[in-house]
Specification:
Elements lengths: L1 H11 L31 H5 L2 H30 L5 H30 L4 H23 L4 H29 L6 H21 L1
Helix pairs in contact: 3-7, 4-6, 5-6
């Protein structure tokens, strides 16, 4: 049902040309010129010379490897609690927390960046990373005490996790690149995340 609804939704939304959301390109990009801002192998050496991009990529790798392992193990842990169908309620609330956080912290990150362009997003990402540790710890430590604990700490964990990615890491990874190579940068960033997921599967 959700797939059908999302399909209907795609029929009525306006899909702007690739890159037109970039302030630097919004006045010049068209459907015809959009393809030149897509992924290009020739852009990879340019990205490789940007040291800030490597810092962001390293941060993602250090952060995501343990998180991916935790996600995989969490299903085994939930099964050990013998919660039955209640486990789906928890997963749904955790997902809702992350989705809400993407909207909330994406907008908040924009506001913070305008007020504090040099450190706004990094500070928010740091706070989110710090809060993720106690919320996840509390979720696993007190989750066996009932669905209420799982729901509360799961929602907080979802919010803190989304504040790091949507509020800080994703915008920073694009903001440090020229608009013309952001398509390639986005591809390389997603590729690294996919490689991390593969490592998680191996573990």
């Amino acid at each position: 049902m959700l797939s059908a609804l999302s399909g209907l939704f795609l029929l009525v939304i306006n899909d702007p040309p690739r890159g037109s959301s970039e302030p630097e390109l919004s006045d010049v990009i068209t459907e015809e010129t959009a393809q030149q801002y897509a992924f290009k192998l020739s852009d990879l050496p340019t990205i490789a010379r940007i040291r800030s991009w490597w810092w962001v990529a390293s941060n993602q790798m250090i952060d995501n490897i343990p998180m991916m392992v935790t996600y995989g193990w969490a299903f085994t842990w939930l099964n050990s609690l013998n919660m039955g169908d209640e486990a789906f309620i928890f997963i749904g609330l955790l997902t809702l927390g992350m989705m809400s956080g993407h909207v909330l912290f994406g907008s908040l990150g924009d506001v913070v960046e305008k007020r504090h362009p040099n450190r706004g997003r990094t500070t928010m990402g740091l706070i989110g990373s710090i809060l993720t540790i106690p919320t996840l710890t509390a979720m696993f430590a007190f989750g066996d005490r009932g669905l209420g604990f799982l729901m509360a700490f799961g929602l907080m964990a979802g919010l803190s996790l989304s504040s790091v990615d949507t509020g800080a890491r994703w915008p920073i990874s694009q903001g440090i690149l020229y608009p013309e190579i952001r398509g390639t940068g986005c591809y390389r960033y997603a590729q690294e995340k996919g490689q991390i997921c593969c490592c998680r599967s191996g573990l």
